[in-house]
Amino acid sequence: MKILTCAALLGLMASCSSYHVKDAFGVGYSEIPLSANTYKVTFSGDSSDTKDDVYNHFLHRCAEIGTQIGKPYFVVESEERESYTHDHGTTSYTDVHAHGDTYGHNFGNSYFGHGNANATATTHTFNNKYKTYDHVGVVRFYSAAQKPANAYDGNLIMQQFPQDKE
Q1: Which sequence spans correspond to the domains of the chain?
Q2: Of the ranges 26-35, 71-80, 116-125, which is most confident?
Q3: Which residue did the predictor score with more confidence, 163 or 146?
Q4: Which pTM value belongs to this model?
């Protein structure tokens, strides 16, 4: 069952772009080693990432950590998916277009005249709301000799869908 799930996730990962260590905006991955074989792994997406994109990046980062520590099989022991709505208010601007004509006569120090003027104003308003997703999990890593039946194969994930790092 886990192999089928892994294969399905690999298919989804094909659409993922690159990822990186968390940047100043909090987008990217981070991990905290809890023991030699257990890590808390986080991936935080930006406004263009869907929930599935974030989960796929999370799994890819787990596979990468497992490969780095020589234990490429992993089980996500606990996990949380979080979503955030960011509201930066609204932005507005107004376009004003004016046109007209005037006529007049200058008599010495006096000016006599008349005229017509028209103006139109249009206000444009934009909503600055967007949603982002995080995926956080406690992940335990295993060697081939220790791997449980429900473990993800990190080697398979890394071979099928390598990702560029920024």
Answers
A1: 2-86+131-160, 90-125
A2: 71-80
A3: 146
A4: 0.64
